[in-house]
Amino acid sequence: MTKSKSLFITTLIIITIFFNCKDSKKSMANSNLDEKIEQKVDSVLNLMNLDEKIGQMVQYSAGWDLTGPASSKSAQDKVDKMKKGLVGSVLNVVSVKEVREAQKLVMENSRLKIPMIFAYDVIHGLKTIFPTPLGESASWDLETIQKTATIAAKESAASGLNWTFAPMVDVSRDARWGRIMEGAGEDPYLGSLIGAARVKGFQGDDLSNINTIAACAKHFAGYGFAEAGRDYNTTTVGEFELHNMILPPFKAAAKAGVATFMNSFNDIDGIPATGHRVLQRDILKEAWGWNGFIVSDWGSIGEMRSHGYAKDKKQAAEIALNAGSDMDMESYAYEAHLAELLEENKISLSDLEDSVRRILRVKFQLGLFDDPYKYCDEEREKNNIYTKEHLAIAREAAKKSIVLLKNEGNILPIAKDVKSIAVIGPFADNKDTPLGNWRAKGRYNSAVSLLEGVKAKVSKNTKVYYEKGVELTIPTVKPGSNQFLYPLEFNTKDKTGIKEAVAVAKKAEVVFLAIGEDAYQSGEGRSQVNIGFLGLQNELLEAIYKVNKNIVLVLSNGRPMDISRASEILPGILVTWQLGSESGNGIADVLFGDYNPSGKLPVSFPRNVGQEPLFYNQKNTGRPYNSKHVTYSGYTDSKKSALYPFGFGLSYTTFSYDNLKVDKETMNVDGKITLSVDVKNTGKVAGEEVVQLYIRDLVASIVRPTKELKGFEKIMLQAGETKTVSFTIDKEVLQFYTINRKWEVESGEFLLFVGENSATKMKQKITVE
Ligand code: BGC
To answer: Which UniProt keywords apply (predicted)?
Structure first.
C-alpha cells in the first residue's frame, strides 16, 4: 500500500466522523478526553462489524516467542487474520522493515484498514542499554531516569515501534523474586515518582510526536508480592495494604497519563488479576477515571483455567472482558469466544465497544490513523539508534546508579597512577552480563566491561592484571541466543582458574573483585532461594582475601544479594547492578574518583535470605524487637535489621545533618508545616547527597508503618558548604487510605524523620488537630 492510498482511506474515515458522532457524548463523560479524537473513535467504531471490533482486542506475538510458552497458533494463521483486519496489535516485531511488512498486511488487504499498534518490551533501552530499572532507581535522579526513557522511546520509535511494555511499577520487596530487577524497588513513594518519570520519558507531552511511544504500567496488580518470591505465585494482600503499598505507583502512572496498563499473572486473595473487576473496572477505570486500555499479560486470560478460576477458555474470556481486560495477548480467547458470549448475553456490547474505543483512542493519539507507516523511516532508523549521544547518557546513568556501601580506610577512590591493579572475577571482563535481562535489541557482548573501563582510565605506567578466576555458569545454550527458555547451571567443580587469580592478586596493590550474578539470574521466571554468591565465587573470594586484603567488591547484581561475608571482611563494596552498554566506563568513573558516588539503595540488602521479604517500611508488631528477650518479633540467629537499609549509600565525602526544625508544631488536617534541616559537606571533596524525609503516624485507624518515605531532595554540596533543605508537610504527605476507605489525614501525632537513609533517628514531633 502506498502512503497516498493509506491517506485516502484515512480521509474517508475522517469524513464519516461528521455523520456518525451520535455516541460521542456518552464517551465524553470524562473531561480530560480530546473531543476531536473521541469523534474520530466513534466514527470508526460505527463502521466496524462485530468481528472487526473483536479483532481490535486481539494481540499476537509475531516474532519469535520471546517471553511466554510457545504460541500454538501458526504464523500463517496470524498473517491471514491480519489481512482480514482481525488483529489490533502485535508484539515482538521490531525494525522498520518488519513493522512495515506487517502493517502492509492490514493496510493493503483489510476492509477498514485500521492500523495495528506495534509493541515490544523496551525495559531499559532498545539498543543503547541503560542500567536495569532497579539499578537506575538507585540514582534517585528523576531527570536522568526520564532522560533514559526518552532515549529508549526515540530508538524504539525509530525502529517502527509504537508501544513499550514498561514501566514495571510493581512494588517489590523480595530479593528472591527475579523480576525485582525490573522495577523501582520496595518503596511506593519512590516507585511512584520513578514510574511517572519513566512514563513522561516514553510518552513526552504528545504521543503523536515521532520520537515518543505509548507506555504501559504493569503488572496490575500485586505481582511484586508473589508469595515466597516465587514468580507467578499467588499474593495475599489485604485491602489497606493494596491501597497504601501496591496501588500508589499505578495511580501515579495513570495520573502521568500512561496510555496503557497490563494486568498480571497472579491472583490476589483468590481472584486472578486478569479477572479482577474491582481492580480494573471499579478502581482503575471508574474511580481513577483513566481512559487508556488494559492489555492482558502473555496468555493470562487463558491461564485463569490453570488457576482453577475458569473451566475453559470461553469462560476465561467472559470473566476477563467483564472484569475490564481490553486486549488479549496471546490467549486466543477473545477471538474465539467473544462473539458467542455476546450472543448468549454473557457479556455486553457496550463493554466490548468500550474496550475497542479505548484501543482506537490510543491509535489516534499515536497518529497511526494519519499515517500507519509514520514510524517506518529507514533513515531515522539508521541515524537515531546507538548514537554517541545516547551512549554518553548511558554512561551518565550508569555512574549515577552505583551505590558505595563500604569504604573502609578510604580505599576508594584509587589513584589513576596506582602501580598495579588485579581485576578478577567472572564479571571482570564480561561484556554481556552488564546488559542485564530484558535487554531488547542490545547486542550480545556489546557492553564496556569493567576491565576495559579500568584500562581506559589508568596511567600508562599502571600494570593491570586480569584473571577470570572462576566460570560462574556452564553455558547451556549458544551465547547470545535466547536464554529465556533455559535454566542456568552453575559451575561448582572447575577450580583451575582460582590459582591464577591468586597469583595476580599477590602481585597487585589493589584488587577489583567482580563477582555476583549473571544477567539471566534475574528477570522473569528467575526466582532464586539462594541470593548469595553461587558456584565457586565464595571460594574465589576467600582465596584472594588470603593473599591481598585490599579488595574492592564490584558487585554484579540484578537483585539485592546476601553479601554478609564480603561486607564483614572487605574494605570496599560498590553495588554496580547491571549497568548497561557503558557499564565499565561508568564503574571506572567511580573507582578512580572522576565521579563521586551518590546512589542510594532502592531496596534493603538483607543479612540472610531468611529475612526475605525484607523492607524498611514495616509495621510495628505488638512485640517490637527486644534484643534481650526471646519472645519478641525478631530472629534468634540473626539481627532483624537489614545489612544495608533502604536509602543507604556512601560518598567520597561526608555529610552532617543539623538544626532540624519546624515553623510550627501543630497544624490542622488541611494545614501546612515547613520542616527544615541544615546539611553540611564535612569532607574534602564536593559531593551529592539525597536528603530523605520519612514520617510515622503514631496512632491511626489502621496499623501504620514505622517509617514511610515522603520526600527527598538530591543536592550538590561543595566541600565545607552547608545548604538548608526544606520540606512541606501537608495533606499530600500525611494522608493514607484509612479505615473509612478514603485517602485522608487523621489527626494525632506524627514523627518526621530526616536523614541520609531509612535508619535515620533524627526526628521532630508534630501534632495534627
Ligand atoms: C511478561 C510481561 C511482558 C510480556 C510480553 C510476559 O511474560 O510478564 O511483563 O511484557 O510477557 O513480552
So the answer is: Glycosidase, Hydrolase, Signal
Instruction: Give yes or no: 297 in active site.
Output: yes
- Rounded to the nearest angstrom, the gap between the alpha carbon of residue 383 and the centroid of all alpha carbons in its chain is 27
Q: How far is the CA of 68 from the centre of ligand 1 (A)?
A: 7
Residue-range domains of the chain with CATH: 56-65+85-380 (3.20.20.300), 395-602 (3.40.50.1700), 655-768 (2.60.40.10)
The CA 97 to ligand 1 mean position distance, Å, reads 24
Whether residue 52 contacts residue 86, with contact meaning beta carbons closer than 8 Å, is answered with: yes
C-alpha cell read off for 63: 516474532
DSSP letter assigned to residue 577:
-
Q: Are 134 and 577 in contact (CB under 8 A)?
A: yes
Which residues of the chain carry a pLDDT beneath 50? 1-30, 64-67
Find the catalytic residue in 42, 187, 267, 297: 297
- The alpha carbon of 145 and the centre of ligand 1 are apart by a number of angstroms equal to 22
Alpha-carbon span 221 to 242, nearest angstrom: 9
d(CA 413, CA 591): 5
Across the strands, what pairs with 6?
A: none
d(CA 36, CA 275): 32
Spatial separation of the C-alpha atoms in residues 428 and 487, rounded to whole Å: 23
Summarize pLDDT for 500-544 with one digit per residue, the tens. Answer: 999 999 999 999 999 999 999 999 999 999 999 999 999 999 999
C-alpha to C-alpha distance for 231 and 490, rounded to whole angstroms? 20
- pTM here is 0.95
| Chain segment 649-667, per-residue pLDDT in tens | 999 999 999 999 999 999 9
